[in-house]
Amino acid sequence: MPRYALKIDYDGGPFHGWQRQAQGQPSVQGAIEDALARLEPGPHTIAAAGRTDTGVHGTGQVAHCDLTKPWDPFKLAGALNHHLKPLPVAVVACAAVPDDFHARFSAHERRYLFRLIARRAPLTHDRGLAWQVSHRLDAQAMRDGAAHLVGHHDFTTFRSTMCQAKSPVKTIDEITIEEVALDAGVEYRFRLRARSFLHNQVRSIVGTLERVGAGGWHPDRVRDALEARDRAACGPVCPPQGLYLTGVGYPVDPFQG
Q1: What is the C-alpha to C-alpha distance for residues 167 and 198, in angstroms, rounded to an integer?
Q2: Of 29, 92, 148, 169, which residue is most buried, by most CB within 10 angstroms?
Q3: Helices (H) then strands (E): counts for the chain
Q4: Please, are residues 172 and 150 in contact by the beta-carbon 8 Å criterion?
Q5: Residue 154 and residue 192: Cα distance in Å, rounded?
Q6: Is there a cis peptide before residue 254, judged by omega within 30 degrees of 0?
Q7: Number of other CB atoms surrounding residue 128 within 10 Å
Q8: Catalytic-residue membership of 53
Q9: pTM of the full predicted structure?
Q10: What domains can be seen in the chain, in order of their start residue?
């Protein structure tokens, strides 16, 4: 059966996460599988690089699907986008891949962006697309706190109690924090890169760093929280609407060439 990799862009607001829901609630996976069924009748199951939670967005999610007949990748993307309307989901790239390609297990890197906007007036254009706080933050203090989290650590403090990962030990390769002046307010863009992440790890980290930026935590308290290996030592978990899965890395980029 021909296998295809799909790069997917979606607004997570209307969905109960990526994964198809047993209760029939809307999901991104379900929307794409339903679109595939319009092209080739029958059940379809796709696998993704990451299972984003309710309200989390994707600009570079990758999934793969198996079809019974060969398709031109450009035409397959167009056909899927036609059947995905009017949902806020789009296939932005499609490529034929070898049978041993797996969107999840072949990946060696995931990249996330978290958008936090500080301004007093309510958000309008970015409503549902960023976390809003009313106070300015100290970006350098947050960078100092984040430095304690880069590298190979036990991240028990920064994972959900419902996390199903076998081990809390992960390696974060990079955390960068960019401060961007807006016409009204300031946007802070947190970018994190790792082979894989624990459930709620990014949101737990950003929520904790926000406390550092607001002056409630000293940057070294992030180190103490990490070393505690105790969920109770974590700062607040920030809301999902500012989080984006922006990219997935593979040994060979399936969408190049």
Answers
A1: 9
A2: 29
A3: 5, 10
A4: yes
A5: 17
A6: no
A7: 13
A8: yes
A9: 0.96
A10: 3-106 (3.30.70.580), 109-246 (3.30.70.660)
- DSSP E strand boundaries for 22-168: 47-48, 57-66, 89-97, 109-118, 131-133, 151-154
First to last CA, the chain: 22
pLDDT in tens, the chain (257 residues): 899 999 999 999 999 999 998 887 999 999 999 999 999 999 999 999 999 999 999 999 999 999 999 999 999 999 999 999 999 999 999 999 999 999 999 999 999 999 999 999 999 999 999 999 999 999 999 999 999 999 999 999 999 999 989 999 999 999 999 999 999 999 999 999 999 999 999 999 999 999 999 999 999 999 999 999 999 999 999 999 999 999 999 999 999 96
Out of 53, 72, 173, 253, pick the active-site residue. 53
Q: Which residue(s) pair with 115 in the sheet?
A: 189
Alpha-carbon distance of 70 to 68, in angstroms, equals: 7
Tokens, residue 198: 């624990």
Contact status, residue 99 vs residue 178, Cβ threshold 8 Å: no
Please state the length of the chain: 257
93 touches 6 (CB < 8 A): yes
Q: Which DSSP string corresponds to 22-63?
A: TT----HHHHHHHHHHHHS-S----EES----TT-EEEEEEE
CB contact set of 227 (below 8 Å; sequence gap of 6+): none
User: CB within 8 A of 247, min separation 6: which ones?
Assistant: 59, 60, 109, 110, 111
Cα 85 from chain centroid?
A: 22
